[in-house]
């Protein structure tokens, strides 16, 4: 993949004839890329992170707050994820909902993956990601590409990806089931999915129909996450839980 050429030119999909634009910093592979008048708004939990302010603050205090809910912190979360990815090391890793690239940069720097794709729906998160990369000589020449896409429509062919990472993201997705089904589709056989998110405490079955109220985020219970992964076709589900933090992993059969 010749990244500078792709970024300069954009390209046209030979199968569906759609033209995709390049934004210099990242490749825009959303369906609405290039549309002039048509716009689409996502749920607040997606739109929030498109804001320049939230994107700027994300690695400057916002993410650190997650520790209060039991998140071990980026260094430890990265090491935990790497352990799960061991069977698929050396392949292509997609960091979906990468935000400002906190983990994409660590994966790229590790040198353990052939390519790392930092993917997010937020243009401003990707700009922040680019700024961090630009100022870090140790990753400037690593095989890291920035892509804008919706997790519910991942721009990769089926069975082409070895590892998918989704840090602190599932609770922000408009449809976790569409997202996990897409992740399952793009993973190759034996490929590994690792995610973290905020848990909702389990409630007795009787009260479940009352729903999740008007929460801004779509926090799932530990049981729902396992059910989601296995019903989308993933196998070997495992998880580690600490307060509201969960890291889970599953594998493509
Ligand atoms: C809380 S941040 C997580 C960032 C980073 N992965 C981490 O571990 O800190 C959640 C990210 O999910 C992204 N996101 C929300 N909806 C999305 C969607 N539909 N497709 C792709 N990314 C989405 C947001 O833009 C945001 O960057």
Descriptive account of the structure:
By secondary structure, the chain is an alpha/beta fold. It has a single domain, classed as 3-Layer(aba) Sandwich (Rossmann fold). Helices cover 33% and strands 23% of the residues. The protein is built from ten helices and ten strands. It has a ten-stranded mixed sheet, sandwiched between helices. Strand 2 and strand 3 form a beta hairpin. The longest helix is centred in the first third of the chain and has 12 residues, at 74-85. The radius of gyration is 18 Å and the shape is globular. The model has no long low-confidence stretch (mean pLDDT 90). S-adenosylmethionine binds next to helix 5. S-adenosylmethionine (SAM) binds next to helix 5.
Summarize the structure in short.
This is OLC1v1038123C1. The protein has helices spanning 3-9, 44-47, 52-62, 74-85, 102-110, 123-134, 137-140, 176-186, 205-208, 222-231; strands spanning 11-12, 19-22, 27-28, 92-96, 115-120, 144-148, 161-166, 187-198, 235-242, 245-251.
Which helices and strands, and how do they pair?
Blueprint lengths: L2 H7 L1 E2 L6 E4 L4 E2 L15 H4 L4 H11 L11 H12 L6 E5 L5 H9 L4 E6 L2 H12 L2 H4 L3 E5 L12 E6 L9 H11 E12 L6 H4 L13 H10 L3 E8 L2 E7 L2
Parallel strand pairs: 3-6, 4-5, 4-7, 5-6, 7-8
Antiparallel strand pairs: 1-2, 2-3, 8-10, 9-10
The protein binds S-adenosylmethionine.
Subunit structure: Homodimer.
Subcellular location: Plastid, Chloroplast, Plastoglobule
Family: Belongs to the methyltransferase superfamily.
